[in-house]
């Protein structure tokens, strides 16, 4: 960028609307930047302000504004795949003698993917302003963040799975559904059907698994979003109500046949994205519930089950939370409460 010219861009909310929700995202230098949130089919309008040094004239070959969506694989930083590119010329070739502001609008833009920043991949939307000059271009970029909604599924089946060793251990797990929104609550139960070994530790975790690239060059990264101890030889943080025989069982590190432990895991405190499947044939992101048991001899037993995370509109979310609240307050249940509000 030449000393004679300074370029500044401002991302403004649409006319007549309140300030937009902001998302903090990491830039290339690992510094945090604040990005306004936009949605699919929503217009993007703002202004470009070009400032020139006082009493200096700047000649240019045109000023262009672009709206770009691309996918960057961190192990192949030299190649960005653009899946969206729109362009507008806001100024014809000429001279700039003073600060000028140019309006632009990209109307009803289809944003088919949600923004994403992962371990090995970044899906990014940004506004790029270019001042064309004979010797060098002046370029400025401003990121925005896109959220994509989908309606709640018509069917949402419960999950049932088991862990067992013949004639020694048989434990079953049941979760109320298989598809959740980011503000949802995972409700489940653990059934001890046959226990002839001493269990000293049990934990539930949510794992995010990111797959990038395609064979033969493919990378898989797993990240534990959260991990909670259900049993660890003594009552754990988050237990609000348990009958006395269950408390004693947890303190002794044992579980008895016929015992049931309810679980309630709040998702609202975690950074969950929707589930992504084969986005532009570049990456996928999936979530799994992982239940781990460790016995006295440090033998490990685990079971994983994929769950689907989906984002719903705020109106649907408020309605869903209202229904869940009414159901929760209408029934008295003894629960192991686990989550952001209790831990």
From TrEMBL:
Top-level taxon: Eukaryota
Biased composition (Polar residues): 1-13
Location of the region described as Disordered in the Swiss-Prot/TrEMBL record: 1-23
Gene3D superfamilies for the chain: 2.60.40.640
GO biological process: intracellular protein transport
PANTHER family membership: VACUOLAR PROTEIN SORTING 26 RELATED
Family of the protein in this entry: Belongs to the VPS26 family.
Protein name as catalogued: Vacuolar protein sorting-associated protein 26
Organism for this UniProt entry: Lactarius akahatsu
């Amino acid at each position: 960028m030449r000393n004679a010219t300074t370029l500044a861009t401002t991302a403004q909310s649409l006319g007549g609307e309140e300030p937009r929700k902001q998302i903090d995202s990491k830039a290339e230098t690992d510094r945090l930047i604040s990005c306004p949130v936009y949605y699919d089919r929503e217009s993007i309008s703002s202004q470009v302000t070009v400032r020139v040094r006082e009493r200096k004239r700047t000649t240019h070959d045109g000023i262009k504004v672009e709206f770009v969506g691309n996918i960057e694989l961190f192990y192949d930083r030299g190649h960005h795949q653009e899946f969206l590119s729109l362009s507008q010329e806001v100024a014809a070739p000429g001279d700039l003698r003073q600060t000028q502001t140019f309006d632009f609008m990209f109307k009803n833009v289809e944003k088919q993917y949600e923004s994403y920043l992962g371990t090995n991949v970044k899906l990014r939307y940004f506004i790029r302003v270019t001042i064309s000059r004979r010797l060098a271009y002046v370029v400025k970029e401003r990121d925005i963040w896109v959220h994509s909604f989908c309606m709640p599924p018509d069917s949402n089946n419960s999950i049932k799975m088991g862990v067992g060793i013949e004639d020694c251990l048989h434990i079953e797990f049941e979760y109320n559904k298989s598809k959740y929104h980011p503000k949802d609550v995972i409700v489940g139960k653990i059934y001890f059907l046959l226990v002839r070994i001493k269990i000293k530790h049990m934990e539930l975790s949510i794992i995010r698994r990111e797959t990038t690239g395609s064979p033969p060059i493919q990378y898989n990264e797993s990240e534990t979003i959260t991990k909670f101890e259900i049993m660890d030889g003594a009552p754990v943080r988050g237990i609000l109500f348990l009958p006395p025989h269950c408390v004693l069982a947890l303190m002794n590190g044992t579980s008895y046949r016929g015992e049931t432990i309810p679980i309630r895991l709040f998702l609202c405190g975690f950074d969950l994205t929707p589930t992504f499947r084969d986005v532009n044939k570049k990456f996928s992101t999936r979530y799994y519930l992982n239940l781990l048991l460790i016995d006295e001899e440090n033998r490990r037993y685990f079971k994983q089950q994929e769950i689907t995370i989906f984002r719903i509109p705020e109106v649907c979310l408020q309605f869903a939370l209202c229904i869940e609240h009414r159901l929760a307050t209408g029934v008295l249940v003894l629960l192991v409460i686990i989550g952001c509000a209790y831990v």
